Design the sequence.
């Protein structure tokens, strides 16, 4: 998880807990549990630690399912390379906005349709918009819209997408050339 994955919350110094964060925590706890299970030593102490970790892992699973019921099954569907575009569209449409992890995986899936990518292009999570900007199924209208995003330099990714209209691609590559020249003269 990147620091950029942490979404500021209106409450000072609080982070919005999205599935991206909760899933990362659960994966970390699972790795710690695996480590403890391989350790020789005081069985009673290790059993207590194992039980505490299993409770924390279960709590994270409950959190994921509260955000999006049957979360693990939906992740399994998206991770399947044979999942059809229609199913990806249904999952994207049904997902709550804070299901960052599922939506990020959909934005990376090779079978995601242009229609689904168009919907995801407006998501608040930067990684999802970045994936849409580089996705080979993104359509020209979506790429044009992303090239104008002022919150991050998506135009750079759009410049290399083969579906970007030729005139826009030339314009964006010219911008890169000028930026490279101005950086070189400093």
Sequence:
């Amino acid at each position: 998880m990147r620091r950029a994955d942490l979404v500021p919350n209106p409450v000072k110094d609080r982070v919005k807990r999205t599935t991206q964060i909760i899933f990362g925590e659960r994966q970390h706890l699972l790795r710690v549990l695996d480590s403890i299970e391989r350790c020789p030593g005081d069985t009673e102490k290790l059993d207590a630690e194992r039980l505490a970790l299993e409770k924390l892992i279960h709590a994270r699973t409950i959190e994921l399912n509260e955000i999006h019921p049957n979360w693990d099954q939906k992740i399994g569907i998206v991770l399947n390379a044979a999942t059809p575009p229609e199913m990806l569209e249904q999952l994207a449409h049904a997902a709550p906005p804070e299901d960052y992890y599922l939506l990020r995986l959909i934005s990376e899936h090779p079978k995601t349709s242009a229609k689904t990518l168009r919907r995801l292009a407006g998501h608040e999570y930067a990684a999802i918009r970045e994936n849409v900007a580089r996705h080979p199924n993104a359509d020209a209208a979506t790429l044009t819209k992303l090239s104008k995003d002022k919150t991050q330099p998506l135009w750079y990714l759009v410049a290399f997408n083969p579906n970007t209209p030729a005139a826009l691609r030339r314009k964006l590559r010219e911008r890169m050339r000028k930026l490279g020249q101005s950086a070189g003269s400093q």
Summary: DSSP finds ten helices and two strands in the chain. The beta strands are 7-8, 15-16. The mean pLDDT is 90.
